[in-house]
Amino acid sequence: MTTPDITLYTSGTQNGVKASVVLEELGIPYKVKQVELLKKEQYEPWFLKINPNGKIPAIVDHGKEDFPVFESTAIAIYLCENYDPEEKLLPKNDPKLRSQVIQWVMFEASGIAPTQGQSNFYCRYLPEKIPFAINNCAKEIKRLYDVMNKSLEGKEYLVGNKFTLADAMSYPMIRGHFFSGIESIDEFPNLKAWVERIDTRPATQKGLNVPVPDKMKEYRENPEKLEEFEKLIQSFFKEKQT
To answer: What range(s) does the GST N-terminal domain occupy (predicted)?
Structure first.
């Protein structure tokens, strides 16, 4: 395997840190370019050449002719397929285990991420609160959490009882449940224990602090900072709508 030469383009969001968590867990060296979302750098021509959808995260693999990869799930699978010879996060030789990991990765990508993303919008970004939308998102988030909670019964991790991509992709979203309007996950004891277990993984924690110190931790520990962020992001969306 050639030495990786990768640049990560990201921001300190729940979705953005998924790529850095995977990079850190795999021990892949990489460079970081912070994309300033509120300055709309993601829509600048140079970034749209990397990701035509104008979203973070994205990577460029310079060792493979500057090959760009966008979408956090696609990035994670690409990194595992090219730079995970020890099968740390994604099995290669056991088709059933591999399928189980990918199933949970897709569960996050099609369920947890978009639902919490919608909830973030209604709970934090939108100045006018819409109770029906907030409650509907919360109901679906809890349903998804219950699926995971039941699946974690008697297990430390989702697949094969070891930390895999299935865990790495869901963790950044679920640890930020409060940001998405779910104040507590005490009713999901297996899920809560799973979060606390991953909290102790040094590589994952390092990934959460890329490209800036862990924002979810800051907002959880300092409500004033969360309030400041809400005012800033609500102002941004007001401007965007005009």
So the answer is: 3-87
Paired sense of beta strands 67-70 and 58-61, if any: antiparallel
Residue whose tokens read 């990768």: 6
Asked if residue 1 is part of any domain, the answer here is no
CATH number at residue 76: 3.40.30.10
Helices of type H across the chain: 16-26, 45-48, 72-83, 95-107, 113-120, 131-151, 165-174, 189-198, 202-208, 215-221, 223-241
Taking 50 as the pLDDT cut, the residues of the chain under it are none
pLDDT digits (tens, 9 = 90+) for 81-112: 999 999 999 999 999 999 999 999 999 999 99
| Domain-embedded: residue 165 | yes
Non-local (6+) Cβ contacts of 102 within 8 A are 77, 90, 165
- Which residues constitute the domain of residue 55? 6-83
Angle between helix 165-174 and 72-83 (nearest 10): 150
pTM for this entry: 0.96
